[in-house]
# Entry
Amino acid sequence: MINLAARDILHAWGKFVFTGIGLGLLIGVTLIMAGVYRGMVDDAKVLLDNSGADLWVVQKDTLGPYAESSSIYDDAWRGIRAMPGVAQAVNVTYLTMQVRRGEEDVRCMVSGIAVGGPGTPGWPPWLVAGRHLTRGHYEAVADIATGCRIGDRLRIRRNHYTVVGLTRRMVSSNGDPMVFIPLKDAQEAQFLKDNDAIRQQRRRTAENPIYDRPGIPNLVDEVIAAQSFNPFVNAVLVQIDPNSHPEEVADKIRRWKRLTVYTRAQMENILVGKLIATSARQIGMFLVILAVVSAAIVAFIIYTLTLGKIREIAVLKLIGTRNTTIAAMILQQAVTLGLIGFVVGRIAATFGAPYFPKHVLLVPRDSFAGLLAVILICILSSIVAIRAALKVDPAEAVGG
# Structure
């Protein structure tokens, strides 16, 4: 039985190998699609790991700061820091935007980090080159995925920042590289209006008749003065004491500060279960379509090969070969075709993944599941060819 399958493969090895390569490329695309989803989940977890936080304190009734916008006063951290069980509490801002580098725009997540140093929540945990931020303004630490080098100048809104440090794998949940700048600069970039908008607002404020009423002569000046600074941040990152439980500390903050607080598990559920859920379903649909296409290709190829040797199968039946032996021969051919395709696909996915703009994470578990799926698809796809072979009349071996 094995010799029959092997000899038939060797007889038409060119067609068999090239078909396996074509199928392998399709399987490679399938593995990469699964890797894209794994990469999205990994990016979300890396974002949370690199933040260094145990709790995220955000605007009440929001899913911020990553899945929704969030805005809280920048002095809220003082009261949170005084809560029992809190070791550190620092402000942070996040803004996804186009950052200008030379003549090129780079999609980045700009993070405003508070005064501190390595180990402070929100700070990049390590650098691959350069140094951390030491000045209060106009310095930046960028992920190497931005293409930046030490000394490069970045334009964020109307200000320019000098890149003084480079980090690695600091990305948003969407895979955008991160740029870290001082908190005050980030607040200005995110919340303050440009000069023209401020002038127009001042004109509207001055021309509004309500300000001509007696008793409020300085209201215009107060509004204009309020526009010169920004008292908001997106979240407060909290590190708790080793002996404290995250949920207990979070309950105290919710009760006394009237803010929404998320633990690590809850924030991961928001990012994975809500933020990338639609993308996950879309990738799942693509995987189903690719599996159906792969099954159709294998079924068509094996059926074509079977029809091409009808006379040989008739001869086997004429000399008394059992139907199970013929069916096993066709099944082995289908499985061999699938194994060739899987090996080619795995190699193609391994070498092709680094060239994708999104982070592609190929895990052994997915490869093993892919191998089982390929074998199952090949077995099911060979049924049509086996049915055709078993219907062959032995008389065709001596027919004209």
Notes: The CA atoms of residues 56 and 262 lie 5 Å apart.
